[in-house]
Amino acid sequence: MNAADRSDLWWRTAVIYCLDIETFFDSDGDGVGDIVGLTQRIDYLAELGVSCLWLMPFQPTRDLDDGYDITDFYSVDPRLGNLGELVELLRVAHDRGIRVIVDLVVNHTSDRHPWFRSARRSRDSKYRDYYIWRDTRPRGSRNTVFPGEETSTWEHDPKTGQYYLHSFYRHQPDLNLANPQVREEIARIVGFWMAMGVDGFRLDAVPFLIAPPGAANEADPHSFLRELHRFVMRRQGEAALLGEVGLAHDAQLDYFGTKGTELDLQFDFATAEAVFLSFVRHDARPLADVLRARPIVDASQGWAMFLRNHDELTLELLEEDERQEVFTALAPDERQRVYGRGIVRRLAPMLHGDPRSLRMAYSLLFSLPGAPMLFYGEEIGMGELPALGDRAAVRTPMQWENTKNGGFSTARPSKLPRSIPEDGYGPAHANAHDQLRDPDSLLATIRLLISRYRANPEIAWGEFSLIDTGDPKVLAHMAVTDEATFIAVHNFGEDACGIELALPSTSEDGELIDLLHEDSTTTPERGKVRLELEGYAYRWFRLVAPAAPALS
């Protein structure tokens, strides 16, 4: 696919940055982050190299699940701002070349949403069938999403004497997507936010959305995704749908549909989990095995790559012994684990603050084929606050400066949505102000990686393959287009090593341009190159003909 053909497939190469407005920047000193504050910090994101901003829920909410319990799909939480301020945010972001996607949380509503309040008052309510009801609690209704917090997926409602389905928390009754009226409502919600200027949507927990356990099985549960995709394309041809589908690669294929008929992007959970297993073992082979088997998808679709996000680091796709191996190494304290499947830690403390392994992890994120995603604060090495418990531990306010409240707010600490860490990963040690002025900081490293990623399109568009390194600790891969060849090498070992790479036959007369170190080139000899790697070293190269200029 040439550059002209792929120009409108922006999501394939987007650099995605996820944040919660509530915890990003407080502009008015009330202790809560707000839309105006985010707008004031858009230039920070633009200078970082972000091309797509993902906003976690900002609609009115009871805030019992960090905003994912929405009470009004068509408005803005008044603590955060208003619709006018949101439209201004979208305008400023677009002016900086940043697209904006938002969470589309239509698996359920809050139990305080007007639809559900009406539905539970009477079986004759017009909104009764917006939800899923049963006269008796079905068998096998154990809650598997939040074990230990919810015991069942069905809750008895005494007013009408029936049970309603909630795949997640009991205060989040599931919407009934088998009801055409519910689908019409969802289309209106999507159309509304696109009219405001939104560029796409991130769909939460997609398997539960289209086929919630306990609901009547539809003959074709994927019909909803196809309808949604068609509607979005009609309204705005360049909008994108990013889906959270926490399944193995082969099972994820169904959610792409046929040649761009369902999701455009999916988070790559299998690769993320393999990265951590490789780190723990100091062995590249678990990651290599997953990458080698990853299916090739249509050119209009792609994988969203991540290391951490706003939820737990799930390890569900690993074997039980592998999961325990990662738990032992990266979450030795039981309080750092959740639901028997995940880790509630940020990346920097999980990798013991080792700058070598931390930088190598981000090199992997930006060099593997896919659209890389950062969770706010990752770029400065923020840590978690275990005292908050569970997933809230990784959702503390952004650390801007080594000042009161980390520069997030001038309010009293008691007014903040969450406390700020004070350990070795708190504002005194990790803040944006200091790192912007330090050329050797993690932030500077990530800015460099992003700039090189965006300047070398073959990373995302090239034909991917692994290169044999002869050392199980070292991963090497390349991405080849008609224009260029990109090569990346990563040493998962703590110790230095030397490797020899056999390059493509076209390398006989070419040069390897080092993309991360200026004025550094290597000339292969008879199609091979010898590399000396320090522990946790990473190298990026562009293979070019001698007379061809290298992008940087």
Detailed description of the structure:
With 552 residues, the chain is of the alpha/beta class. Helices cover 28% and strands 17% of the residues. The chain has helices spanning 3-6, 35-40, 42-48, 83-95, 114-119, 180-196, 206-210, 223-235, 249-256, 269-281, 285-293, 320-330, 347-350, 355-367, 432-436, 442-455, 458-461; strands at 16-19, 52-55, 99-104, 133-134, 154-157, 162-165, 200-203, 240-243, 265-267, 302-305, 313-314, 337-338, 342-343, 371-375, 463-467, 474-480, 485-491, 497-502, 511-514, 521-522, 528-533, 538-544. It has an 8-stranded parallel beta barrel with strand order 1-2-3-7-8-9-10-14, surrounded by 4 helices. A 6-stranded antiparallel beta sheet has the order 15-16-17-22-19-20. Helix 4 (83-95) links the parallel strand 2 (52-55) and strand 3. Helix 10 (269-281) packs antiparallel against helix 11 and helix 14 (355-367) runs parallel beside helix 16 (442-455). The protein is globular and about 80 Å long. The two termini are 22 Å apart. 49% of the residues are buried. The mean pLDDT is 93.
| Assembly annotation | single chain
Q: Work out the helicity level.
A: 25-40%
Instruction: Tell me the fraction of residues in β-strands, as a range.
Output: 15-25%
How many DSSP H or I helices?
17
Distance between the termini: 22 Å
Mean pLDDT: 93
Computed Rg: 24 Å
Global morphology: globular
Helix/strand-derived class? alpha/beta
Largest sheet, described in full?
8 strands, parallel, barrel
